[in-house]
Each structure stands twice: as structure tokens, then as C-alpha cells.
Write the C-alpha cells for this entry.
Amino acid sequence: MKAIIRWFVDMSARWPQVSRIIAFDGNDDGVRGDHIAEKLVSPFYFVVGSLIEEARKEGTLIDVSPRTLFFMITHGGSFPMVLPVLTNKFPGGDIMHGDSLDQHADAMIRLIFGED
């Protein structure tokens, strides 16, 4: 699960346009929105959702719905790279590179797993 979060953060920096499309067109209530849900989001949702369920059963995650955790991971994990100009207006370095990206993934993991 932690490796998936790190991978997702890295991929979001490499291809932020994917999350931009999801964010800006995923709310379409027609063919485009359906396509985004079916082809871009659903496959990843079911993989991550099953990992979330396993981690919850093991007691390593709090008892929160898989949907909530999925969107916390995907939106929280990608949005700083979707909007790098806005993100970089605040302290923390260039979100698209190096230590800033690693720190972002580390923070996501600490928040989700409650680790120090």
C-alpha cells in the first residue's frame, strides 16, 4: 500500500495531465465522464480499494471507507502536481522534483497510516 502511494505520487509528477483530465472533466455527467470513470479511475480504484480493505482488516488503517481513502490518496497525492504553479507559491521547494516530491509522498503515508 505504501509503495502504491509512492508510485502514484511519482506518476502524478511525471504525467500530471492525467490527473488534470480527471479533475476537470471527471464531473461530466455524460459520455466523457463515463469514459473517465470506466477507463481511467475504475481500474486503479479496484486495485487500491482491495489493498485498503486488506490493510483495514490487518488493523494498519483506520476504519474509513475505501472510497474516502482512495480519493484522499489520489486527489491529495496528485493535486500539488496538477497545480504546480499554485503549489510552488508556498514554501516547500519545487513540488515536481527531488526532495519536495519525496516529502509529499512521506507525508501522505504518515497521514494515512498514522506513523511518525
Summary: The chain has a mean pLDDT of 92.
